[in-house]
Amino acid sequence: MNIIVKKSIISFFLKIAGALSGLLMTTLVTRSLTLESSGSFFLFFGILSVFLIFCSQGMQIGYVRYIAKLFSRDNWPKINSLFTVGLRNVFVLSVSISITTFLVSDFLSTHLLGNEELSSTIKIFSISLPFFTISKLIGSVLQGLGKTSWTVFLHNISVPIIFSIFVFNGYLRSIDFNLYTFSIYFLSSSIFTFIISIFLWLKNRKKTDKIDTTENHFFLDTTKSLWVLSSATVLMEWSGVLLTGIFSNSSDVAIFSVANRVAMLTSLILISINLIAAPRYSSYFHNNEISKMRSTFYLCSKIIITLAFPILVFIILFSDQIMSFFGDEYYQGAIILKILIVGQFITALCGSVEEILNMTGHENDMRNIRIFSLLIAFLFGSFLISLYGALGAAISTTLALSVQNLLAAYFVKIRLGWNPLKFWLIN
Q1: pLDDT tens digits for 137-150?
Q2: What tens digit of pLDDT does each residue of 245-283 get?
Q3: What is the DSSP letter of 359?
Q4: Tally of structural domains, the chain
């Protein structure tokens, strides 16, 4: 248990570094571009994130689950085989979508977005897709290998930091910033991160004389369910941004995106601990060490609540000042931030319910929960955003997120036999 606590603390501070990197990137965008251009940038980034998960085909979760199990048995022939087959499938799909989006960018900008000047930006973001996707996928592989620090770096730190370096260099050179310039910076950051991820895999893998493909069939079958689950997950995460882009305007997209990124700080603790705990849940479950898995879950929930509550209070008390930091136009987003933070706290209260279901073979339950919650997000979002703009997006997002986590907690109790909300049971 001391290992869990120690690594969770390290992971938490790494996630803090990742969050600060993301906030730095967000600040540079909001301070350097107009409100409308910032909204377009965040909208394209959201669409790219949806494509990322779709192209990953459920393998981000699948890699953590299967590689953690195989790594605990030092079975590198199977690990190398899973890595190869997964990377090949993801590469083909991501390149295909990238090329298709590039070719139809003129149509999308003119007929869907109503602004033909956005065509060049769409092209740049489409080129970023394969590099962005594969680097994130390798980050999940490293998580399965227990290399959590490098996972956080690839998932949360590398792209924002490299992007920020490009922007600071632009300031020094007095470059006239615009949306196209920032899309070029993002593409360059994605390419550099991709190169780093390949290097990290080659450094941490163990070469074998043979490849064992016997696990591949089970892995690919599992990822089919995880594909639906992960797609629903990212659509849920970005539903507010996407629906605001459809039913409102770019200014509302920018305000909601900034408030949502700040609100996500509350869930940093949960994400940090999940990075450490998820492989252990898988290992304990497959080795039939159920009592250890349950004790680990309750310990993680205690840590999450202890660390999340002060962040929640701070953000609520200083929401006006926090939103104003990104620019005078963002001050109106304070109430949006307060609403979003409630949903994030409920997520923290429920603990690692999603991870425990995914790592114990109940991913179908989590998939169904995600789909139901996504329907709530889209139904309420489309109605409320049409009426209230970014405020409606905050309300629908918080409602859907709360329903999702409470349902997941209920299914943990049904499937595994303990109540995840009774985290005080462990000493």
Answers
A1: 999 999 889 888 89
A2: 889 888 999 999 999 989 887 777 777 777 677 778 877
A3: H
A4: 1
pLDDT for position 421: 79
Q: What is the largest CA-CA distance in the chain?
A: 62
**Alpha carbon distance, N-terminus to C-terminus of the chain:** 11
| 381/401 Cα distance (integer angstroms) | 12
Tokens 């409320």 locate to 384
Report the C-alpha gap between 158 and 310 in whole angstroms: 27
Dihedral, 324, 327, 328, 330 alpha carbons, nearest 10: -70
**Any long-range contacts for 50-54 (C-beta under 8 Å, 24+ apart)?**
50/231, 50/234, 50/235, 50/238, 50/242, 51/94, 51/97, 51/101, 51/129, 51/133, 52/129, 52/132, 52/133, 52/136, 52/234, 53/230, 53/231, 53/233, 53/234, 54/93, 54/97, 54/227, 54/231, 54/234
d(CA 66, CA 205): 15
- Nearest CA to 143 out of 76, 207, 200 is that of 200
At residue 218, the 3 state secondary structure works out as helix
**What CA–CA distance (Å, rounded) separates 158 from 307?**
25
**To which residue do tokens 């993002």 refer?**
186
pLDDT in tens, 204-243: 988 887 888 888 888 888 888 778 878 887 888 889 999 9
Instruction: Look up the domain containing 216 and give its range.
Output: 2-425
Residue with tokens 């995880």: 226
Identify residue 224 by its one-letter amino acid code: K
The C-alpha torsion from 32 through 36 and 39 to 43, rounded to 10°, is: -120
